[in-house]
Design a protein that fits this description.
The complex is a heterodimer of chains A (112) and B (114). Chain A is mainly beta. In chain A, 0% of the residues lie in helices and 54% in strands. Chain A is built from no helices and 11 strands. In chain A, the strands form 2 sheets. In chain A, strands 2, 4, 5, 9, 10 and 11 form a 6-stranded mixed sheet that branches. A 5-stranded antiparallel sheet of chain A has the order 1-3-8-7-6, with no helix packed on it. Helices cover 0% and strands 51% of the residues of chain B. Chain B has strands at residues 4-7, 10-13, 19-25, 31-38, 42-51, 54-57, 64-66, 76-78, 87-94, 104-105, 109-113. The radius of gyration of chain B is 13 Å and the shape is globular. In chain B, strands 2, 4, 5, 6, 9, 10 and 11 form a 7-stranded mixed sheet that branches. Chain B has a 4-stranded antiparallel sheet with strand order 1-3-8-7, with no helix packed on it. Classes of the chains: A mainly beta (112), B mainly beta (114). Chain A binds chain B through residues 31-32, 34, 42-46, 49, 51, 88, 92, 98-100, 102-105, and chain B through 31, 40-43, 45, 48, 50, 58, 90, 94, 96, 99-108.
């Protein structure tokens, strides 16, 4: 059974701090990884994707991928109260399988 | 104004009724997906389609049906055979690329069985 695991949280950080969200995956053949943010009652919105080992930065967000250890992380710098949401991690397998394997999400609370 | 639209936003169904949820996209994406989200259970794939007139079952297809007659449209019917249909339904679409198929979501339809 291919799985993506995340700590459910809640992860609580003060405003201005760095929030670190982690995700591990079981399918070593997974090639692409996605981070989505979901506000309560709303649909998921893409933050960023990553498929190469190392770091990928986009504004206040940095995704980190380590295929050898099978984990993906998302760092949010200068966290704001508006970042309070559930963060979903997803992994796509190799080949023509377009299906994503989803984690259950980590709830983040940024306290003013 | 490109995007994915879902309608209705809220839907109430009596037991024994079939209902159809609409999903339309004008992003020229080839692939479309239907997910169901329940509290504490994450996103579960119902059906997906990579090309017109073709679709595949996801992990929880029982009690659901779909059609893909046009590239832009992928309606989902929740039949009376679905025993616990109350949930948040999400439609997504993506291009089909060599390394990454980023899925973009519509706003969702919240279905409640009365």
């Amino acid at each position: 059974q291919k799985e993506v695991e995340q700590n459910s949280g809640p992860l609580s950080v003060p405003e201005g701090a760095i929030a670190s969200l982690n995700c591990t995956y079981s399918d070593r053949g997974s090639q692409s990884f996605f981070w989505y943010r979901q506000y309560s009652g709303k649909s998921p919105e893409l933050i960023m994707f990553i498929y190469s080992n190392g770091d990928k930065e986009d504004g206040r967000f940095t995704a980190q991928l380590n295929k050898a250890s099978q984990y993906v992380s998302l760092l949010i710098r200068d966290s704001q109260p508006s970042d309070s949401a559930t963060y979903l991690c997803a992994a796509r397998g190799a080949g023509n399988n377009r299906k994503l394997i989803w984690g259950l999400g980590t709830s983040l609370a940024v306290n003013p | 104004d490109g995007g994915i639209t879902q309608s209705p936003k809220y839907l109430f169904r009596k037991e024994g009724q079939n209902v159809t949820l609409s999903c339309e996209q004008n992003l020229n994406h080839d692939a479309m997906y239907w997910y169901r989200q329940d509290p504490g259970q994450g996103l579960r794939l119902i059906y997906y389609s990579q090309i017109v007139n073709d679709f595949q079952k996801g992990d929880i297809a029982e009690g659901y049906s779909v059609s893909r007659e046009k590239k832009e449209s992928f309606p989902l019917t929740v039949t009376s055979a679905q025993k616990n249909p109350t949930a948040f339904y999400l439609c997504a679409s993506s291009i089909i690329g060599p390394r990454t198929d980023t899925q973009y979501f519509g706003p969702g339809t919240r279905l409640t069985v009365l």
